[in-house]
Amino acid sequence: MKKKLLSALLSAAMVATLLVGCGGAAPAATAEAPAATEEAPAAEAPADDAAPAAEATGAGKKVAVAMPTQSSERWINDGANMKSQLEELGYEVDLQYAEDDVQAQVAQIENMIAAGADCLVIAAIDSDALVNVEQQAKDAGIPVIAYDRLLMNTDAVSYYATFDNKGVGTKIGEYIVEHCEATPDAPKTIELFMGSPDDNNAHMLYAGLMEQIQPLLDDGSLICKSGQLEFDDNNTLRWDQQTAMKRCEDILTRYYADEDLNIIASAFDGLSYGCMSALEGAGYTDANWPMITGQDAELMATKHIISGKQTMSIAKDTRLLAAKCVTMVQAVLEGSEPEINDTTTYDNGKIVVPSYLCEPVPVDQSNYKEVLIDSGYYTEDQLAD
Ligand code: GAL
Q: Is the same domain home to 295 and 231?
């Protein structure tokens, strides 16, 4: 039964993912709409005759899902997957995006509590900024589940569904070490573009990455000409593409006037796009284009991998993440036991949050078909143009 249910969930989520994926670009977050409360584009999955009907156990219960932004494709898919999988089980879903505006997210969660949510699922913009509102939820007896980003400094969170965040950094680092062909006699230059300092995931990724590349920095195989190796110097607030582009432009001008930059260790596809614009602006061509990493294997990033513009990314199957999170919702609302595979790593400063870590998978030209197409995450048509 469990297997049947998961397959129904995945099948509905897959349809929703593909629908959303085909639906064109995400509406850009604008300054004029700071308190955006729109839902993601239609996530309604059409009836799928092949899928066995899921047991609707959630009737009469409302699950509120607070997502950070629609400016990157992954969160649109995450929201759509959560909505369709929860609705499949009979839950009413209140899905809201806050367009990377911290105060807007606080206000949305307050409204969700006031509107009688039975459970809150939160992917935070600033993981520290929600402490008060999480306490309000706890006081009102509403369980909270952290989605992909850990909620910090609160004991109001019951479970955490995520990917192995340090593992993402490890895999990016391993990829660089394996493919960069740098030696002390023939060194390569490298610059780091890390994630948002208010997102615990960014710190964990950085730790995993540094563990791998530090020996090559130490023996002189890798050289970071800007010297910006500390997280404080190479992070990117809100994982923002423009911020990464500007920092990359500045680095290229100041440190790479006479020498090429060979490797960009980027922590997220959005940052990689920003760096690509900076490289193009600085006159880089196929002849000296650097190795560029990323994370999320967004549709655009995957197209860049196929064309050779981006070297690799880390695939994170958001259908699976949503399915795991849904089992946590069921656990807090129906008293079932969710599958947990980590009870030690995610200390949020108040408690160690029981977590399920999905596996991140590195993708490049050699395996994107197997990882992303054969699994139904993308269709060949989506990747064709
Ligand atoms: C992080 C997440 C990454 C990426 C990033 C920017 O929290 O771990 O996969 O999506 O946010 O959205």
A: yes
Q: What pLDDT is recorded for position 233? A: 98
Give the residue, by CA position, lying nearest to ligand 1 atom 4: 268
* pLDDT in the model for residue 371: 98
- Domain containing 59: what range? 2-164+318-359
State how many domains the chain has: 2
Residue 97 has pLDDT above 80, yes or no: yes
Using the atom order of ligand 1, give the atom closest to the CA of residue 205.
8
Lookup: tokens for 322: 């949503």
Shared-domain flag, residues 144 and 12: yes
Whether residues 188 and 93 fall in one domain: no
With respect to residue 368, please indicate whether it lies within any of the assigned structural domains: no
- Encode pLDDT of 35-50 as tens digits: 333 333 333 333 333 3
Task: Please tell me the predicted confidence (pLDDT) of residue 54.
Answer: 57
Q: Is 202 inside a domain boundary?
A: yes
- Mean pLDDT of the 364-379 span: 97
Mutational pocket test of ligand 1: of 77, 296, 314, 346, the residue with most ligand atoms within 8 Å of the beta carbon: 296
Per-residue pLDDT at 372 = 98
Whether pLDDT at 11 is above 80 = no
Q: Are residues 254 and 122 in the same domain?
A: no
- Bridge-partner residues for 190, per DSSP? 263
Q: Are residues 278 and 355 in the same domain?
A: no
- Per-residue pLDDT, 57: 80
Q: Is the CB of 201 under 6 A from ligand 1?
A: yes
Burial class of residue 122 (count of CB atoms within 10 Å of its CB; 0-12, 13-18, 19+): buried
- Could you tell me the distance, in angstroms and rounded to a whole number, from the CA of residue 148 to the centre of ligand 1? 8
Contact between 161 and 145 under an 8 Å Cβ cutoff? The reply is: yes
Residues 6+ apart with CB under 8 A from 64: 93, 94, 95, 96, 109, 112, 115, 117, 119, 120, 121
CATH of the domain at 27: 3.40.50.2300
Considering the entire predicted model, what is its pTM? Answer: 0.87
Contact yes or no for 78/318 (Cβ under 8 A): yes
309 with 324, same domain: the answer is no
Residue to mutate, 70, 74, 298, ligand 1, most ligand atoms under 8 Å from C-beta: 74
pLDDT in tens, 171-202: 999 999 999 999 999 999 999 999 999 999 99
200 in a domain, yes or no?
Answer: yes
Amino acid letter at 342? Answer: D
